[in-house]
Amino acid sequence: MSTTSLQDARPGLAIGVLIGSAVLCAALAMGLRQSMGLFLAPMTAAHAWTASGFAFAIALQVLLNGVSQPILGQVADRIGGRRVVIGGALLQALAVLGMALSDGLPLFTFFAGLLMGIAVSAAGMPIIIASLTRLLPEERRGRATGLGTAGSSFGQFLVVPLVQLGISGFGWQTALLLVAAASLLMIPLALPLNDRPAPPTAGAPREQTARKALSLTFRDPTFWCLFSGFFVCGLHVSFLTVHLPGFVASCHLPAAVGAGALSLIGLFNVAGSLISGELSGRWRRRELLVAIYAARGAVMTAFLLAEKTTATVLLFSAAMGLLWLSTVPPTIALCARNFGTRWLATIFGVVFLGHQIGGFTGAWLGGIVFDRTGSYDMMWVIGILAAAFAALVHLPVRDGPRAAAVPA
Question: Which segments of 234-314 are extended strands (E)?
Fold first, then answer.
């Protein structure tokens, strides 16, 4: 059995249409998901919830996203990404609707944590990018992955301010209802992601199973280096996504600066992801990841020591935006190079689990640190130390030629 190529599966489908649909789908998925931090202040004020209580629900979402990602990745490897993304879009609409109607933390945690965590796995960037990677020839994958990641960031840049406008103009509850409706727009965008494996041909050798592929992967030190590095990426991303608006408020800056900071991160990551995608096809991916994480640590250190003004917040957001999801193209390229593309959504899903465990840690720990100390300073120090660790842990990663699959 072999995965169908773009030309074999859909002779009339232009590569531009495929990439464009995937980019827009990833943009909408990421933009809607990254807007959740904007609801922390109005919802905790309306319901008298603690910041850590709200943050736990979002952290649980991040964790369940990671736990369910390999499972849904394997489903996508078997039946195709299109069906999984469509199912995730429907579930996300239901989850956000439930969040809008929740009047207590337990019910909110069920919808925002459990259902939303599964939904964003099904209709999220890993499955969209893995499907796109399989449908394209190898020489186009790095650039397409960079475009998909950049599209996700553009969605953050575009959607987050719109959600903030909705909150300001219509209230947080109506804004959540609009987010639920917007989730359904991912359904038509997912239609070109038809990457179902081709049926086996007579006399073809039996293919490597998912269990065998994972067994070999888990014995490879390169996998655990990538897993650990993505843990740090998730810690940074979730901490800033959930708590940067609150951090801005704690510095007595206008609320619009917090939304603008998240939006600016998304805008600059468009450039960062495109650059990373191009460099993934030209440089060693290992050295690229080392440089990205080291730069993150330097930027966070400079921001911690700087005076907190609107200008420094926006400069920090722009710099972090260049490094935000630029880790994705080299990481997924290393997964494809080392472990093949047949079970790419499954294997990258397990690597992504590390990202989401880190995301759970960053989101929840940020709330705990703020509740207990009244400041985010300790979290900035943790983020800087984590960046140094991630830069070092990628040094042993193997980045040479590797066979794509091993027959079972």
Answer: none
Domain ranges in the chain are: 13-197+209-393
How far CA 225 is from CA of 67, 218, 291, 391, 397, in Å, comes to 18, 11, 15, 10, 6
Angle at 403 between CA 397 and CA 408, to 5 degrees: 115
Whether the CB-CB separation of 213 and 346 falls below 8 Å is answered with: yes
pLDDT of residue 195: 66
Residues 62-96 pLDDT 10s: 788 878 888 888 888 788 888 899 999 999 999 99
Quick one: CA dihedral 207, 211, 216, 222, positive or negative? Answer: positive
Spell out the alpha helix ranges (H) of 136-254: 138-170, 172-183, 186-190, 210-218, 221-250
Percent of the chain with pLDDT over 70: 89
Sign of CA dihedral 275, 146, 284, 386: positive
Q: Choose between 142 and 126: higher pLDDT.
A: 126
Enter the pTM of the model: 0.71
Instruction: Please answer whether residues 60 and 360 qualify as being in contact, where contact means their C-beta atoms are separated by less than 8 angstroms.
Output: yes
10 vs 329, more confident: 329
Q: Is the dihedral of CA 55, 270, 18, 223 positive or negative?
A: negative
Residue 7 has pLDDT above 90, yes or no: no
Give the fold, CATH level 3, of 13-197+209-393.
Answer: Growth Hormone; Chain: A; (1.20.1250)
407: helix, strand or coil: coil
Collapsing DSSP to helix, strand or coil, 344 comes out as helix
CA distance 259 to 261: 5
Nearest in space to 141 (alpha carbons), one of 351, 292, 285: 285
Are 105 and 122 a contacting pair, CB within 8 Å?
no
The average confidence (pLDDT) of the chain is 83
| Model confidence pLDDT, tens digit, residues 191-201 | 887 766 545 44
Look at residue 406 in the predicted model and tell me its pLDDT. Answer: 42
Residues in the chain: 408
The SS3 call for residue 398 is coil
403 CB burial (10 A radius; 0-12, 13-18, 19+): exposed
Token readout for 150 is 């950049």
What residues contact 260, with CB distance under 8 A and at least 6 apart?
A: 161, 314, 317
**Could you tell me what percentage of the chain is helix, strand and coil, using 3-state DSSP and rounding each to the nearest 5?**
80, 0, 20
